[in-house]
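hiii, so i know i said id send this last week but things got crazy w the move. better late than never?? heres the sequnce for the chain we talked about at the cafe, plus the structure i predicted for it. fair warning i was half asleep when i ran it
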Amino acid sequence: MSEGAERSAPSAEIEAQAALWLERRHLGRWDDEMQSALDNWFSQSSAHVIAYWRLDAAWIKAERLIVVTPPRQKDAHKKKALFGFLRMGIGAAVVTIAVMAGLYFRNPPVATYTTTLGEFKTVTLSDGSKIELNTDSVLRLSQGRTRTAWLDKGEAYFQIKHNAAEPFAVMADGHKITDLGTAFTVRTGNERLEVSLLQGRARLETADNSVEQHSAVLVPGDVLVATPTSLSVTRHSQHRLVEALGWRRGVLVFDHTTLADAAEQFNRYNRTKLIVADDGSGLRTIGATFPEHDVELFARIAQQVLGLQVEHRGGNIVISR
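okay and structure toks below
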């Protein structure tokens, strides 16, 4: 659709359409055909995407409110009331939600899972979905009806049972990754989000106005990198993506990896840090599989195979020419 066509629909009309889509998704029957129709609507204009996810964010906030109603009132009635607020327009909805929150707000049940340096943890959901947390990571998982996880720090591998009526979403670094029947990894840190897709599809949307607005639908082999100002997607082989998941087996796999990058990977798992002291050494490449905690073996390979100097200094290992 051309830029002029995108501008032809008034924002109020677009928000009204977005609210209808959101209502169908949460109150009506939702299937793959409906999802395809929504994806088609998204493809017509970036304004459609932004309006929908802004309303979706308001909906998530609304679901967290405990509205004073008789216990016998049906959940559907509560949801319809919330959609009534959405139809007032996003601005009025947020104001209304804020007022109600001051009176009736209670935090929804959220479970927090953490891993320490070098630790690995698996979280199994009630529907059989699994989340595997890598080293030094923090994940929060909604225990309510909304299938949402927040990756606050680190890296996680998601194997999600797809449910078109209740899609699973991961919030990380100001972005929302929505599962479309997917196995994928998410890694966050230093204002950099990386999403690698192994199976199925996933949709990434901006969920924070402080970062640049962008979106993408990922297919197997895609590796997406998003920062506050940019987004890029590259294609990787399945073999390479599987190698990057070596941490699930307790190993780090390097294939023509620079010594500097390999040392950085080791340092994510170990208190003893590998320090590459000069650029010349850092640019040397290595191809091998190591236990993720065996920094001494890595140092010996650097010394005996690459002919570099190795020195133990201050509890760390310094590698140089």
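btw Confidence is low (pLDDT under 50) at residues 1-8, 63-75, 94-106. thought thatd interest u
miss u guys!!
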